[in-house]
Structure formats: C-alpha cells, structure tokens
Please model this.
Amino acid sequence: MAKKKLGLEDLGGFVFSTNDDFDENTYAEDTHKDYLKPEEQRLEAHFSNKGRGGKTVTIIKGFEGTEEDLISLGKLLKKKCGVGGSTKDGEIIIQGDDREKIMQLLKNEGYNVKRIGG
Model:
C-alpha cells in the first residue's frame, strides 16, 4: 500500500506561488521566530467547567512557543497528573481541578505560573 501524501512537504519541496518576486529564503526567515525561554514566560492556570457538561478542567494559557513545544508540554502534564486532556488554540486543557499539582510541575520546568480564578 502506498504512503499517503500529508502536506506540501511531501510533494518534494515545490513552492507554488503566483508572485514573480517570491524569494524562498526570505519566506523561510520570516517563519522562524525567537520564542521566550520558560523562565521568561508568564503562564496562567485557570479553572473552568463552562461548556463542558459540568466537568471541571484546568486550562493553561499564555504559552509562547512552537506547536510542538505546546504539545510536548501538554503530554508531560497529562502524564504526570495521570489524566486526559488536549492542546488547542494555544492552550493546554487538563481534565480535573489539579491546579496546584500542575502549577508545581510547571515551576519545576522553569515556567512562571499564576493562579487565576476560584
């Protein structure tokens, strides 16, 4: 069975552009950003149960970094807490109200965390 093509990268590096002045090197430099180190970031630990059928979740907001870093941090928190969750829209959603434990884990990783809400 043939491997499915997932994205433009799988097409062999072709660049589709109608712009005659397109410069691939300029585009590559624009996509690279300097993200903050964990010590410089200000994360917020929120508690919520709205829109979730009454189930409680802890939401971590304010992460600045790549999508891969966000996903790996979410996996770490879910694994250490032994619960489920997800990462979307730049937020980490952890099932349950484990704010204190999550805040301690984030502080151990070097992040500055602030408790928001009740």
The mean pLDDT is 82.
